[in-house]
Amino acid sequence: xxxSVLEYHKKDKKVYSQLDGHFHTVYEIYYFIxxxxxxxxxxxxxxxxxxxxxxxAPGVLHGIRVNSRxxxxxxxxxxxxxxxxxxxxxxxxxxxxxxKKKPTLELLYEHTEAFHFDEFFYHLxxxxxxxxxVREMLSxxxxxxxxxxxxxxARAQKPARFIDTLPDKMMEIVNYVNGHLTEHQTLxxxxxxxxxxxxxxxxxFKRYLGTTAMDYVxxxxxxxxxxxxxxxxxxxxxALQCGFTDYSSFYRAYVKYAGTSPRSDMTV
Length: 268
Hints:
This protein is α+β, with helices and mostly antiparallel strands. The protein has helices spanning 86-93, 117-126, 132-156, 168-179, 187-193, 198-209, 213-230, 235-241, 247-258; strands at residues 4-12, 27-34, 37-41, 44-47, 52-56, 62-66, 72-79, 106-109, 163-164. Strands 1-7-2-5-8 form a five-stranded antiparallel sheet, with helices on one face. A four-stranded antiparallel sheet has the order 6-3-4-9, with no helix packed on it. A hairpin with a 2-residue loop joins β3 and β4 (44-47). The longest helix has 25 residues, at 132-156. The model has no long low-confidence stretch (mean pLDDT 87).
């Protein structure tokens, strides 16, 4: 699989006041250059500062909120460890989330100007106009250089901390939902359990997590099912283990949230 630089120095003047919670099945390296924006990870918020580098693991719910029409400029790179040659994979990925002895979901580093990450993204972007054989030959080299620089950054700086912005009530609701993912849950049953209205429930999920309550349930179930399949479970068994009542609804949800069919994530 080739390195994919989906956004390079992309400039945007739109205001995204609503969070759009989403996740990826690969790692994301997000380099914020300028603008007025916040980033959310599983309900935790962080006001982005220029030259902030953000690393996020697969399957982690996150989103961006753009607060003004100031130029919003960033680089985004998605990658799989399969992009790296085996001899370098451990050295260059041990700093990424879930590759440490104490796994974490995300890492965020401020004030990274001295590491010149914009130049590393620039070299990756240059490959977009090259023939496929050139991209396949040079992409892993440029990617390793970027990850090596991140490795040096991690040795020199401690990551910044996210702020837990979930109110106590929402934290209680989220913990309850996560603790009962494999059981039958509906919007009505969750709202009734906490003696709140369905509108209140969805409004606050959208406000703090960038998605609706039931989308959050389905998204979390897909993560569990994906992990089960990667450990050898069949797609049907994974679906039933993770709270889906039939394969067709599981398949539709999987394609929607993971962007691929369940078969592509099964072990062979």
